Amino acid sequence: TMKNPVPQAASLLLEKLLLLVHVRPLSPGSGGEPPPAPGYYDTSCFKRGDLLEVPRTLFIHFGIYLGENRVAHLMPDILPALTGDRRQIQQVVTNKRLILGVITKIASIRVDTVEDFAYGGSILVNHMDRLFQDQVLGSEEAARRAEKLVGATAYSLLWNNCEHFVTYCRYGAPVSFQTDKFCETVKMIIRDQRSVLASVLVGLASIVCLGLAPSTTLPTIFIPFFLWMAG
């Protein structure tokens, strides 16, 4: 018998939304796999000021290498607004902290190990340099810019994300090619108004199949609203 495509479509939609904000999708009841142990990545080829990229299924996470196995990167995170306890804040950002950070538009530029930053993904080094050519700043200047910005900051999925942070540090201009591509995709979707209805139906199906939770209700509310606003 043919499998019902609705749960599959709902699952795919949720996965893409989670990837959009750099959430690591976890299976129900799972605590998620721990990050690789220190030394998993060969950092001998990284230089201070390098721009590191970790490709995900749909989007890319960015950081600036500071040397000594440390990476500065921007992450949505609600915790800095709730506590000043550095030990708690420095722990690896959980999905719950991240999602609440996206909703409240709160983030932090934090320093993590390469292992915690990449979380098992492959790393590209200075892959964006080809797009900026003569605009590349000195490596030490890029690292110092990143270090000066470490701490709490405002967050915007489209206007102030991890890509804006690294392009400002290494190239002097905060831009996001992912944002541009995302907006173009939205414009294409809007040309077919049926897509808005389809997203609503998939969202409702995800609630029915997966239960009432932030990971299901938020996409159902915000995706159609965003598509409508973009039109």
Automatic annotation (TrEMBL):
Q: Of which family is this protein a member?
A: Belongs to the H-rev107 family.
Q: Which reaction equations make up its catalytic activity?
A: 1,2-dihexadecanoyl-sn-glycero-3-phosphocholine + all-trans-retinol = all-trans-retinyl hexadecanoate + 2-hexadecanoyl-sn-glycero-3-phosphocholine; all-trans-retinol--[retinol-binding protein] + 1,2-dihexadecanoyl-sn-glycero-3-phosphocholine = apo--[retinol-binding protein] + all-trans-retinyl hexadecanoate + 2-hexadecanoyl-sn-glycero-3-phosphocholine; 1,2-dioctanoyl-sn-glycero-3-phosphocholine + all-trans-retinol--[retinol-binding protein] = 2-octanoyl-sn-glycero-3-phosphocholine + all-trans-retinyl octanoate + apo--[retinol-binding protein]; 1,2-didodecanoyl-sn-glycero-3-phosphocholine + all-trans-retinol--[retinol-binding protein] = 2-dodecanoyl-sn-glycero-3-phosphocholine + all-trans-retinyl dodecanoate + apo--[retinol-binding protein]
Classification lineage: Eukaryota, Metazoa, Chordata, Craniata, Vertebrata
List where in the cell it is found.
Cytoplasm, Perinuclear region; Endoplasmic reticulum membrane; Late endosome; Rough endoplasmic reticulum
Name the major location.
cytoplasm
Provide the function of this protein. Transfers the acyl group from the sn-1 position of phosphatidylcholine to all-trans retinol, producing all-trans retinyl esters. Retinyl esters are storage forms of vitamin A. LRAT plays a critical role in vision. It provides the all-trans retinyl ester substrates for the isomerohydrolase which processes the esters into 11-cis-retinol in the retinal pigment epithelium; due to a membrane-associated alcohol dehydrogenase, 11 cis-retinol is oxidized and converted into 11-cis-retinaldehyde which is the chromophore for rhodopsin and the cone photopigments.
Transmembrane regions: 196-229
Q: Which GO terms describe its biological process?
A: retinol metabolic process; visual perception; vitamin A metabolic process
Q: Which UniProt keywords apply?
A: Acyltransferase, Cytoplasm, Endoplasmic reticulum, Endosome, Lipid metabolism, Membrane, Sensory transduction, Signal, Transferase, Transmembrane, Transmembrane helix, Vision
Q: Any idea what this protein is called?
A: Lecithin retinol acyltransferase
So what EC number does this one have? 2.3.1.135
